[in-house]
Design brief:
Helix content: over 70%
Structural class: mainly alpha
Number of helices: 6
Number of domains: 1
Shape: globular
Largest sheet: none
Strand content: under 5%
Radius of gyration: 18 Å
Number of strands: 0
Distance between the termini: 25 Å
Length: about 160
């Protein structure tokens, strides 16, 4: 796969420039590292789609954000399934359950994040950016846990 090739090249580059320890850490925690890489890409996709919808298509903020969230979560599902957790689910019933579980978990963390931001920013007056960063960290951790334990769990 192309991802494996790119990953190997990047790890070789890290080793060549004296960051062998970082390459070793990546290899040891490959699943988590891939999750972070594809999570970052999902975030970029979310922002780009939002900008396109709101600025180019002149859609409302709510509609733009909803479309961006759907596209980003679809991208996250596909990359998490294939590249992060190596899910082999192919049967329609199991695949539907996996997709519904993935989107449901993302909706749960979206609601938790929205509630958290409402409380700490709107009600308590904390710094918006700092609270958004903290909420993103919490959401990333929760999404990884949900994906690893409930959605893409390895069958024994």
């Amino acid at each position: 796969m192309i991802i494996d090739i790119v990953e190997k090249i990047c790890l070789k580059i890290l080793e060549k420039i004296g960051l062998k320890k970082l390459a070793e850490i990546y290899r040891k925690h490959q699943e988590g590292m891939r999750y972070l890489v594809f999570g970052a890409l999902s975030t970029v996709i979310n922002i780009v789609v939002f900008a396109i919808c709101s600025k180019t298509a002149n859609l409302s903020t709510a509609i733009s954000n909803t479309i961006a969230w759907i596209v980003a979560v679809l991208f996250a599902y596909i990359t998490n399934k294939i590249y992060v957790f190596n899910s082999k689910t192919t049967k329609i019933k199991e695949l539907a359950k996996e997709i519904i579980s993935f989107f449901s978990a993302r909706i749960v963390t979206l609601v938790l994040e929205t509630a958290f931001l409402w409380v700490v920013i709107d009600k308590l007056g904390f710094n918006e950016i700092l609270m958004k960063i903290i909420s993103n960290i919490i959401v990333i951790i929760l999404n990884f846990i949900f994906s690893k334990i409930f959605i893409f769990k390895k069958e024994k």
